[in-house]
Each structure stands twice: as C-alpha cells, then as structure tokens.
C-alpha cells in the first residue's frame, strides 16, 4: 500500500479521535449538570471509541507494510485482526446498552433531564453521523475494511445518543411513558449488534481461508473469453488478506506455443486483471497446454471424430 492510503487512514482516525474526546467531555459535563445518567453513560461510550481508534492507528502501521521474508504474502491479516477487535468492541457496547435498558425497565427516572441534555445528545448525533459518512468516503477511496468498520463504530455512537434525545422529548410530551427510553435503546442495541456482526463475520470467514469473492471467478472467465490467445482458465482460487485479494488459477494455451510466448500471454492477462480489479494485488498463473488431458471447462468428448473437429 502506498504512502497516500496510509495518510488517509491516519488522518481519518485522528479526526475521529479528536471528535470523540470533545463529545465525551461535552456529554459527561452536561450529563453531570443536568442529572442525566444516560448522557453520562453515552459520554463514556464516546471514550470507548478511542480504543478502536488506537487499534486502527497501531494496526495500520503493520498491515500497510510491504511483504517480507517472514510474511511473503504481505501483512494484510493484521487488518483482519483489527476488524475482529473493532467488531468485538462494538458488540460489547451494544450488549451493554441493551443490558442497561432491560435492567431499567419499570424504574422511573429520579431526575428529568432538561433541554441542555437534549441539545448535547443532538449535537452528538449530528457530529457522529457526519463523521460516519466522511469516514466511509475515505474508506472507499482506499478500499480499507478496517476504516469502514471504524466508521460504523462512529454511527453506533450516534445511535446510542438517540435514546437520550428521545427520553428528554418523551418527558415533555408523554411524561407517563417512561419505558419509551428503554424501547428506543433496545432498538439501538439491535442496530449496533447487526453492525458488529457485519464486521465480524467477513473477518472470521477470511481467517478460514474462504473464497474472497463469489463473483470473482465469473469475472476471470469473462476476461479469458475475450482473449483469443487463451484457450481456457480453470482451478480459480482466491483468498483475502485484509482489504486485498490473492488469486491463482490454471491458464491453458496452444501446446505448440513457445514458453516465452506463453509467459507473455500470462503476464498480459495478469496485468489486465490487476488493472480491472482493484482489490486483487497478486496473481499466480500456472500455464498448461490446451489439450484433452488438461481441459476442464470444455472437455473433449472422447470421440476421435469429435477431437479432430474440435
């Protein structure tokens, strides 16, 4: 990964960290002044985001490092581990919010937070939603799954502020329906846990060496069909390493062709794939003769006449 993507990761993370600190101080301070325990807890949640920010800053130094003797396929799995860490933290936060909500069901609040608490909650929602959208844009620029995961952590913070704002309004409009705060918090819990699952599952799937992209094989076959020098492509395998994909397959060419020409065809095809598919960073091609013994996609029919006219 070039220097520019690394700078984008660090810039997005530092901006998020500064926003988290500012919002945490704001929410805890206003929560203490207004007597809103929910706002104080939300402020502590904002401080928890610093944990994932730190993981991104430290992890990016490793997963952006080039391949070396100890890691010949690169260091992309460090990004996978970072995604798992963020997903776990997100799940813990979601479960914590849900547990607090369930525990407080049936308990009337001892204090009634004022509009100052509402203003702080709304400010948090707006800032964190803007931060989420901006971070998502940065993540897409460099195809960083870890930065994408951290963006969702920003949105979880915005969602966790929602029950606080609802509780304040509910106290004014429907003072007898104290449970609205808990119901809203449980809905937020479900959304946060869904985001955690969507971050964790691909990372865990990657560690099991699952295929990187179900549509990747179709793309490769389509590219091969458009190259007159390629007889067939099969045994396509792919795996993820962080945000990158490693690919290998068998490529069949005219058996009468020289090794030098076959190598040129393979290199040109490799360059085409790397140009068309941004996530693919390396391709290993095994060259084979296009004959009946090696063909898989369009096998010989076993009839002499068929072989002659094929």
Automatic annotation (TrEMBL):
GO cellular component: membrane
Compartments where found: Membrane
Domain Cation efflux protein transmembrane, residue spans: 14-207
TM stretches of this protein: 81-102, 114-135
Main location: membrane
Molecular function, one GO term: monoatomic cation transmembrane transporter activity
Family, similarity comment: Belongs to the cation diffusion facilitator (CDF) transporter (TC 2.A.4) family. FieF subfamily.
Record protein name field: Cation transporter
Species for this entry: Photobacterium swingsii
